[in-house]
Amino acid sequence: MGLPLRATKASCARGLIAGAVVTSVLLTLGCQQDHGGRPAATRSTPAHPSAHATTATSARSPSAVPPHGTAAATPPRTIPSVRDFTAASGPGWRPGHNSRVVADLNGPLADEARMIAAELGLRTASGTAHRGDLSLALAPRQSGGAEAYTLTVANGSARITGPADAGVFYGTRTVKQALRSGGRLPEGVIHDRPDRAQRGLNLDIARKFYPPAWIEARMREMADLKLNQLALHFSDDQGFRIQSTSHPEIVSSQYLTKDQVRQIVALGRRLHITVIPEIDSPGHLGAVIRAHPQLQLRNAGGTTFQGSVDIANPAAARIVDDLMREYAPLFPGRWWHLGADEYLALTVKDPQASFPRLVAAAKAKYGPSATVQDLVTGWLNDRARFARKLGKQPKAWNDGFVTGGIVKPDKDIEVEYWTGRLKETARQPEEYLREGRKVVNLNDEYLYYVLGQPGGFTYPTGERIYKEWSPAVLRGSKPVSDKTLTGPDRVLGARLAIWGDRPEAQTPAQVARGIQLPLAALAQRVWYPGKPPLSWSDFTRLAHRLGV
Description:
Helices cover 31% and strands 18% of the residues. By secondary structure, the protein is of the alpha/beta class.
């Protein structure tokens, strides 16, 4: 993808220090013609790529004109937008033929240095940075958190610092995009950090298999958008998609080997993307039930319920725990997704009458007043407890948090709120937030890409996400009214979710194209708080130019 370049090869080359390799790289990045001059010192907070520049002495005056011989400086155009930019006088920075990427190549930023150097066609070096170099360094006392960074362009050089390697990495993404969109980094200082801590993509590989190369390509696109989570839903009624040694009998014919998963996880580590496993239970276990039919849930009349296991049978818990134990080392990240949605025993009119076996198990475990709901909540709590034992922070879908029983869902399980369409029966998001729970936004009104568009689903559009959605819009199209409930410490972030309900409806290539603008719009809204600074048409042009 990409729009026609605004400058010819010759005009880009005139602005560069001689060097065929660097010229080629900048052309690939979309180098624009340099009109010369030095930008006046300006302040833009928050950064607004289309804001008019002002002089340093008249920073508050929108009509101020830069002094003769200077050019207006604006923040770099990136997705997501940078949050704070202070412009200064100077030509900015772009790589020349003597430019290097300088970092401690035996230290924690070695991977970041080598990656951006390869992308820009530059050499790497340790030691002291010189004029023309891009340098990377950790600044542990710098504010903003582990994903924050400061990018300083001055005296013919550029420098990225951050409290941790993640922030420095995001600084290199800004460099890469700024060179592609504008041909240079503007003189000045960028202070940037995400609004929400969790930002990413949810991928259903259980119902539609995606090869490792496709997954890795999406991860590289995600990294350039500063997204940091890839959740893999790899177990469902239609398939179980990761090699297993504890229960090989449940694995589908198409699957990821453990070595392929390790490769995906290793790439994620380099790109600062955490890969989150999900084994959905006690529903959506059809692949397990096919190999173990004795686990099938049946009502009093013998009717089966697709994908739901009999949680009164201890063998059901054993097999799920076996799988969690097996896969925990394969996914070394912080989180484990327990699923817990759409357990069909709770969808009937009278669960107590329909499932006397579940009622008996509930009473035996929790006392004479216990119900089916209590047994289901106990299952969730038991799996969450086991996840914590494995060193994981548990997550679960919001409809797995059942009300009305004597057993309460554990408070530290993160709520992944998906039932956002108003026609769906669901507890309101405010209920979870007022209980003090942490929530992640997967509002299916905006963020569900369901193949084949069954059940009234429509493919999400980047425009709707960009214009209407925010992390506070958890259900329907209106934000939670109490803003104290939806800050970054309560609504932790959001993910776009790809579901394979009708797996043949789109090819992997069509899915990749279909999610491109929705994912870019999501990245903008979870990084940059408030109204996006660009119009939708300008944003789409920028996305095409950047190839994101």
